[in-house]
Amino acid sequence: MGDDRSVTFTPSAKARLEQALDDYRKQLESVISNENFVPGEQVIEATASDVEQAARRLRLVGRAQPLAFELITTSYAIIGLLITLAGIFYPTLLMIWEQRPEQFGVIATGVGILLVSLMSKLLLRRRKLIVNGWQRSPYDPSGRTATPPPMN
How many CA atoms lie within 13 A of 57 on its CB side? Predict the structure, then answer.
């Protein structure tokens, strides 16, 4: 890198580095074994290409916490919107509850399906971002973040 400086690790730093490398190696092995799984095979042979692909998936940049925060805030926004709508239409909903409980059941089912689908979409988006490298290793103290991968 054109820099003639050297880094000397303390014994505790060496131990932490070894732990970080061991954790990273386990993550790589997990990704490789999941991607190259063949039923009945006990040993999976990893190639250099397999390691490169797994390493790309486990890039040590970004942070998963903003994604969790996004999931929570979006959930609260959706729930808040539904409570607001229920408050606005409370007399109508009460009348439907008392006079036509079947219709109220259909409305409640629709709202439930809406909530489940929106939460599933958010979770899938979060998982996609994490798998594509929008995460940060606990061993990266730099605090750098990556540009999130484009959403298709």
Answer: 18
CA distances from 18 to 9, 11, 21, 24, 74 (A): 11, 11, 5, 10, 39
Taken in order 115, 72, 63, 46, the sign of the CA dihedral is negative
Check: CB of residue 96 under 8 Å from CB of residue 110: no
- Give the C-alpha separation, 99 to 43, whole Å: 65
**What 3-state class would DSSP assign to 67?**
helix
Which residue bears the tokens 């709508």? 85
Residues 106-119 pLDDT 10s: 988 988 898 888 88
Q: What's the pTM?
A: 0.39
Q: What is the DSSP letter of 11?
A: H
Identify any residues that bridge with 105 across adjacent strands, giving them in sequence order: none
Amino acid at 1: M
What secondary structure letter does DSSP report for 135?
A: B
Task: Tell me the pLDDT tens digit for each residue of 16-39.
Answer: 999 988 988 888 888 888 887 777
Structure tokens at 78: 């959706």
Residues 56-101: tens digit of each pLDDT? 777 644 445 566 777 788 888 888 888 898 889 999 989 988 999 8
